[in-house]
Design a protein that fits this description.
alpha+beta, globular, 7 strands, Ribosomal-protein-alanine acetyltransferase, 32% helix, 7-stranded mixed sheet, Aminopeptidase, acyltransferase, 173 residues
Length: 173
C-alpha cells in the first residue's frame, strides 16, 4: 500500500476492524476481543487512534495510557497494530509519533513492552528514543514469548520537532 494516511481518534465503530486486525497480527497471543477495546476506549486516561488510507479504510490502530499525576507523569504504549498488507508503509511510525505527541503534552517517560523477536518494532522504537531496560520472560500468553520492556526518557524537545527529526530517518513500521 502507498499513499497518504490520516490519524484520528478511535471510536466504537472502529472496534470490529481492530478485532479483525488483532486476530491477523497476534493469533498466538490471545488477541484482544471487542470487550477489551470498549474498556480501553472508556478509560479517561487512555488515547486510542486509528490510521486510515486515502479510501478511508482503517489500516492501523494504536493506544497509550497517560498515567501518573501532574508532578510525576508517565505513559505506557498499550498497542500498535498495522494491517499486514500495509506493513513497511510508515503507518506504524505515524501512529507512534501521534502517541508520543500525546505523551509529550504531559511530559514524563514512556514505557512499552515488545516481543523480543519483533525486530522491526524494536528498531522503530529505538529510532524514537526507546531503550531496552528489562526482559519479561514468558510475557505473552499463551505462546510464552518473551518481551523487552523499553523506556523513552522524558522528551526534551518539542513533539513537532521530534516528529520532524524522525521522518528524516529511514521509515520503519
Amino acid at each position: 500500500m502507498s499513499g497518504r494516511y490520516s490519524i484520528a481518534p478511535m471510536t466504537p465503530a472502529d472496534i470490529d476492524r481492530c478485532v479483525e486486525l488483532e486476530h491477523l497480527l497476534f493469533p498466538e497471543d490471545d488477541p484482544w476481543q471487542a470487550v477489551s477495546f470498549h474498556s480501553e476506549l472508556a478509560a479517561a486516561h487512555n488515547r486510542y487512534l486509528t490510521a486510515r488510507d486515502e479510501s478511508g479504510a482503517m489500516v492501523g490502530y494504536a493506544g497509550i495510557a497517560l498515567l501518573g499525576d501532574a508532578e510525576h507523569p508517565e505513559a505506557e504504549v498499550h498497542t500498535i497494530g498495522v494491517d499486514p498488507l500495509a506493513h513497511r508503509g510508515g503507518i506504524g511510525t505515524l501512529l507512534l509519533e501521534a502517541l508520543l505527541a500525546a505523551a509529550a503534552e504531559r511530559g514524563g517517560p514512556v514505557f512499552l513492552e515488545v516481543r523480543t523477536d519483533n525486530q522491526p518494532a524494536i528498531g522503530l522504537y529505538a529510532k524514537h528514543g526507546f531503550h531496552i531496560i528489562g526482559l519479561r520472560k514468558n510475557y505473552y500468553h499463551p505462546s510464552g514469548a518473551d518481551a523487552y520492556t523499553m523506556r523513552r526518557p522524558e522528551l526534551t524537545i518539542a513533539a513537532d520537532e521530534w516528529a520532524a527529526r524522525a521522518r528524516t530517518d529511514e521509515v520503519l513500521s
